[in-house]
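To whoever picks this up:

The parser on our side crashed when reading a file containing two proteins. I've narrowed it down to the boundary between the first structure block and the second sequence. Both blocks are reproduced below exactly, byte for byte. First block:
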Amino acid sequence: MRTLIALWRLGRLLLHVLHGLLIVWLRWPALNAAGRQARVRWWSGQLLRVLGVRLEVVGQGRPGAKLLVANHVSWLDIAAMHAVLPEARFVSKASVKDWPLVGTLVSAVGTLYIERASKRDALRVVHQMAAALTEGDTVAVFPEGTTGPGWPLLPMHGNLLQAAISTEVPLQPVVLRWHQPGRDYSEAAQFIGQMTLLESMWRILSARELAVRVQVLAAQGTAHADRRALVEHVAELIAAELPQQG
């Protein structure tokens, strides 16, 4: 039965991705910022529904330029956040732009790509982020640098937070928690270890009553902040909202 449900969801997923590509190819150039954000919110929310994921939202993003900082669990984290904060431009590992079909969609929403193994490239991206924030954009980062199990948090790195400090733009933490009935943290949503994208996708397609909670916390000032102290503070704020295990 779960296999049939997964195959049904997979078929709908492929159609939804193709729908997104048609929007990008045919409508995107003619849309203003508000029109693009409306379609990003709709497409991302619908993607979660197609996959059988229930979206829970707590809090809201502040208006104007901001740096969103979130914990990282799944390749679907971006869709979950875009369903709530469609204005976000994510910083993502460079390999994502080469993913079949999805890479086109991710690039269309203004994603900034980074070669995570290169410190020099991190500096380049910080400058790009600062320019975007100065222009009034919202930028989003996952300071853990990779996906984790949900709890405990992986160590967070503060390099990219320098963009908010330099521009004195507020930082707004976001807490992501994938869960299922009776489980504070869903193993089905995890994308860790040697797991491939296809393996992770099948686990999500087959999951029962999977849900994601997107909690937007209060914005934090960044003027004259020390980035190491700032990232430690943000990590504490996010960890405080996650059920602790073990």
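<<boundary where parser fails>>
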Amino acid sequence: MAELTLDGVTKWFDDGGDRIVAVDDADVEIEDGEFLVLVGPSGCGKSTTLRMVAGLETVSQGDIRLGDHSITDEPPTTRDIAMVFQSYALYPHMTVRENMSFGLEESTDMPDDEIRSRVAETAEMMGIADLLDRKPRELSGGQQQRVALGRAIVRDPEVFLMDEPLSNLDAKLRAQMRTELQRIQEDLDVTTMYVTHDQTEAMTMGDRIAILDDGRLQQVGTPLECYHEPANQFVAGFIGEPSMNFLDVELAGGSLVGDAFEYPLSEETLADLEGHDSLVVGIRPEDIELDGAADASHSYPTTVDVVEPMGNENNVYLTFDDDASAQTVVVTVSGMRKVDAGQQVAARIPEEAIHVFDRETGRALHNRTLDRAEVTEPNV
């Protein structure tokens, strides 16, 4: 196996004399055996990036390396990369066995006996050994997805590329396949680049995630780093469900001053904001407390506007006054807690949980500190 490196990779398209930049100067290093997830909204350039690595799109500028070897100008057939597509791309006239063995038969000199053995072994791993003589039309969506994955695995490539492979599955099967994909990737220890627009997939599957917006790489880090220490306001708003709350404020007299509240800051937080006055304060829904007294520090009277019961939790939408058109903030509370629309509640916004961004650039000036995970010693 090998590291995969994108060094200043750029892709543009010429449209009637206008240059449209799809991917802009992307720098990513994927370690040997690492599972990296490319995530971002539709049209951000993540699939184009994947296709450049696969050789299906030319690179306008920059370099792609597998280990120490540049593959930028190599054809797809020589890159030792296997790709799994969103549409599965199975040959409808072939059986599962034939679909899985076709790539090996066409691109290698491997003996037929070895191909059959490798296909059977991979089919057993994927739980589709009893489907080898069926054709794709006789399979469910989940079974077709397993065949597509098996076809990639059987090639034993240096790198797996996966382009939203779970998006055609229903929610329950998608969650199941997330777990299976993680297990398979860990067992095979193959460098993997996985593309998705679903931030839940990104958070739960990736060793690291790379977040793109409008063709530009916004942040690369572990899921928890991107969640708790976002590089900018876009990352903070994109990662997390419900999204982070954002409130426009001005820094005046040692406090953040908004339309409906004034938020005094400690000297430590103020030091991070020096030289910046026009700001955005961010707070995640689960960090807002509804138990504080209205006159407590960083606690404000609010009115419940809408309650969304989710079962295990409730999403509560609050306004700082009785005006229904006023800006709302979302709070996540336990599903066992009863909260009603129109109820008056005190919302506390702890300073240790806030994020502050420059309003003009979106850059993070102050983040909450990512606490070290507690390690539980096993009972012997």
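After patching the parser it read the second block fine. Confidence is low (pLDDT under 50) at residues 372-376. The longest helix spans residues 171-188.
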